Structures are given as C-alpha cells and as structure tokens.
Amino acid sequence: MSATPDFLSRDSFVERDARARVQALVDDGRFRELIDPFERLVSPWLLRQGVVTQSDDGVVVARGEIDGQPVVVLAIEGAFQGGSLGEVGGAKIAGALELAAADNRRGVPTRALLVLETGGVRLQEANLGLAAIAEIHAAIVDLRRYQPVIGIIAGTVGCFGGMSIAAGLCSYLVMTREARLGLNGPQVIEQEAGVAEYDSRDRPFIWGLTGGEQRYRTGLVDTYVDDDSTALRAAVIALFRRGRPAVERSQRCEQFLARLKRYDPAGQVTAEQVRQLLAEGAES
Amino acid sequence: MSHDVKPNDFADGQARRDAGASDRAASQSDRSLSRGAAWLAALTDDATPLAGSPASVRVVDGSLGGEPCRYIAVVPDPANPYPRARDGEVGLIEGWELGRRVHEAIVADRDSGRPRTIVAVIDVTSQAYGRREEALGIHAALAGAAGAYAEARLAGHPVIGLVVGKAMSGAFLAHGYQANRLIALNDPGVLVHAMGKAAAARVTLRSIEDLERLASDVPPMAYDIASYRSLGLLWKLLDVGNADRPEAADVTVVRAALEAARRDIVDDPERDLRSRLGGGANRDASSRVRGRLAALW
C-alpha cells in the first residue's frame, strides 16, 4: 500500500458504476456487452410487486480481453437494489460462467472475472435468487478446473449472502479497504442474534472483522489494494498470470478445521485472535 | 433463534411409532430427534454414523439399491461448542466438515470406476448467525461444503438432495443445493427459503403481514413446498404418511425415489444442473437469459 499523497490523482474504482468498472479492467477499455440495457430484459418479479426495475437488472456481462486473453467480466451494480441478485441478474452470471466453461472444453481459454458488489439474494425474488446463486456456485467450480476464477470486492456494498459463498469458491480474491466480505449482513445478524452479538451500527467493529484489510491479513483474500483503477487491473493481471492454484481455498477443509481446533468458542473472538488463528500458514 | 420459522414441532401425538421397525423405537422415543436425524436413521437402518465427525454432522456409509451410498445429515446439537450453531444450523465446523467428508468420498472412489452415490438429507434451519462465524470466515466454510458437493457431482458421483424439513438459505446452498437431483417431501414442515420472515421483513422494509400477503401472490417469495415446486427446481415431490417420524411405508417410497434418481443421473450424460431448467412456468426467464447469452456469445 502506498502512502496518501497521490490520492488526489487516483482514479477511484469504488466510485465507478458497474459498466465503468468493466471498462477500467479490460485491455484498452474495450468490451462487448451481452444482453445490454437496450434488450430491456428486466426482472418480471419486481414489476409484479410495483418495484422499479432496471433495464440490465443490475448485472453487466462483458466480453473482452485482459492481458491479451479472452475474458468475460461479470459486474454487479451495487447501486441497484443493493446489488441483490434476482432471477435475471443471477441467470446472466450463471449462464455466462457456463459458456466460459464450455469454451474451455472446446479449447478456447476464456477466463472469468467477477466484480462482486452484492447483498446476496434479492428477497423480492427469494427462491429464484437462491436457485440462481446455487447455479453460480456450480459454474464457478466447473470453470475453475480450467482457468482461475477471480473475484474483486471493491465496496462500498461489499459481498454478502450466497454470493459471499461464491467469493469463497473463487480461485483468487482482491479487496480494497472500503469493502467487506461476510456471509450475513450486520443488520440480519443483529436481527437474528441480538445487538450484543453484533452491533450493526458499530462500523469500526464490523470493518475490523470483515473489512478488506482483515480478510487479507487472515488469508481469506489474496490481494489487498488501494482504491485505484490502475492498481485493481494490475492486481487482476498478476493473479491471472499465477494460473490455477494447486489447491483451491474452498478445498482446504482439513487445514481450516485444524486451525479452528485451536480456538475455544466459549469466548467471543477478537480481530487480533482471528489473525493469529487463520493467518498462520495461510498460503501453505 | 428469533427466526420466525420455528424449529420442527414434534407434538406427542404425532410421534406415532412404526410397529414394523421396533429397532428404531429407542431413537424415535427421543423427542428432540430432528427430522434430518430421523430420516438419516430410517434410510440407513439405524447404522452408526462414522466416528470422527462432530455431533452436528452425521455421515453414514450404507447402500442404495445395492450400490454404495454415503448419507449425510446436519442435525441439532444442543452441546455444540459454537452457541449460534446448536439448532441444526450450518456453521463454521459444519461447513468445513461437510466439505471434508465429501472430498473423502471423492478421493476414496477416484480409481474405483464406481463413484458412490451421495445423499444429502436436508433439514437445516439456516446458516449460523454470529460474531464468531463472521470473524472466522463462515462464508469460506460454506464454500468448502458447496464446492465439495459440486466437485463430487462433476466427478461422477450421483448426488441427491432429499429435503425432509427446512432448506434455508446459506445452509441449503452448503448442504444439498449442488445435487444433480432434488427430491422433497410434500409436507407443511418442508420449507425452502432465502431468509426467515422476520429478517426478510426488516431487510425489505416491509411488515411481516405485507410480506406474507406478497408471498401468497409471488411464488418465489413463498415459503411452502407447493410454490417452490412451481419453479421447476424439484425432480420429485413425494407424499409420505409421517414426515416427522418416517414409517416403513414412507421409507419404502423415499428409497424407491432415491434409487430412481440415481438411475436417472447415471443415464444422464450431463453432470451440471441443467435438468433444473425448463421445468417450471415460474422460471422462464432463467432459460430465456441463457438462450440470449448463447446467441450473443
């Protein structure tokens, strides 16, 4: 991480919308969008509930190149319905990942990059969002047999719910300080478990446990970058060049169980403790 | 739990004994026995679960129609060291353990030419909601489970999800939703959903009453299995006499369906989830989007 003086000249990635993020990531800013907003493939379920739809349902599917290699970038628009996934947006991501895997089976080395800015399932489409996310999981696991699958979590929404599991299935993850990664959103935990368990308004506490820096220091993400479009793109290229990991993070079941064995859940856990428990040998 | 969807209610009168299976009487008299535990025991003739797993994850190596089969259930454990995972939730340990047990089967069968069937017996109240869980990366643990089931499916293991109780949200994603085929019991205690009602109401800024009214009008928002069926995701919906405490006839019906599912999977050249598409009028857009993507790719 660099110091502060250059932040004024920085090109913020966080502040870009989904389409502008794609532009910042692909070679020469050139991409072709599939099912673009002019197709108006909107959510049939939001319409029925009198909720305003968006003409791309909050997901951009873009084909282009990164580092000269074919890529499909799937960018979720956090400003629409909290980046939540319904039937259409979920199918756009799952379907594109399925086609990327099919490409690889035909010898075309298409890679996938997910720009995750999402609260998870869109509750107005509940079970259809959940089903689509299961299909996204399936497609990531299929595709990562051929190419590394990379996820970026830049913020400010972060990545939650079923899509945090999708993040956990990615070969590599990139985060910024602004972003959070967790299964359950703070409000939901507070609702389910009470404010003593999780105070959704205590931002330093929440970022301390689930923010980008902590996730990086605990080995749950691979690269921690400044909010800078050039840095994000460079990080993605570096990770793609690593190729597939020998063992995916989600395959390290025994390793994580062994680490958790050293923790006594009778007491609450601190951010510092988590660093000690998880960071040790994180890259092994 | 302040989950609006309450744990299974085992009224005394409902816990009818199965006279034809008196060997199960001892476990059936345990009123705290969850549906998942009851069905796991019934389908495996009360076999002892494999040693080495926590009490909340029961794994039994048995058979299905004469073929090797691993049955896996997540069950409540009131003594779970993780206080937020005592009600049958999938927590940190449960997620990684499910992944470990599924990987174990994949590795063991790799060179056998005969990958065993894996049946996920699904009765999971939710993912665990807690500070410890978020801090220690429960999202990664659930990915450990979901990823392992998906890998087993791709490796040729017939994977079947049997929904006998609740299939909620992240817990379902981790335990069962990666199956080649999904089977559910046609019973009011069978619920599939993305979030408990109280939390869903808060997040969508609606009252619980509004949410229920909407759910009755919008099939994907409903909690009942009939509405879920209209989405085309289920392979079979089964009528049973006693979903809480399966009787001999119920076990026969479910075993037959599991065997049929296994054959259907073995006969299917595809190992992905495409069999879930095109089966339900309420999931048209999922197919339409894929059609457009393929045309534009």
Describe the structure.
The complex is a heterodimer of chains A (284) and B (297). Chain A has 284 residues and is an alpha/beta fold. Chain A contains 11 helices and 7 strands. Chain A has one domain: Alpha-Beta Complex (2-enoyl-CoA Hydratase, Chain A, domain 1). Chain A has helices at 18-25, 44-48, 87-105, 126-143, 162-169, 186-193, 203-210, 212-217, 229-242, 253-261, 271-279, and strands at residues 31-34, 59-66, 69-76, 111-115, 149-153, 172-176, 223-225. In chain A, α3 (87-105) packs parallel to α4 (126-143) and α4 packs parallel to α5. Chain A is globular, with a radius of gyration of 18 Å. Chain B has a single domain, classed as 2-enoyl-CoA Hydratase, Chain A, domain 1, CATH 3.90.226.10. Residues 1-29 of chain B have low confidence and may be disordered. Chain B has helices at residues 25-28, 35-43, 92-109, 131-135, 138-154, 169-174, 197-203, 208-217, 225-229, 248-267, 284-296; strands at residues 57-64, 67-74, 117-124, 159-168, 181-185, 191-193, 236-238. With 297 residues, chain B is an alpha/beta fold. The termini of chain B are far apart. In chain B, α3 runs parallel beside α5. Chains A and B meet through α2, α3, α4, α5 and α6 of A and α3, α4, α5, α6 and α7 of B.
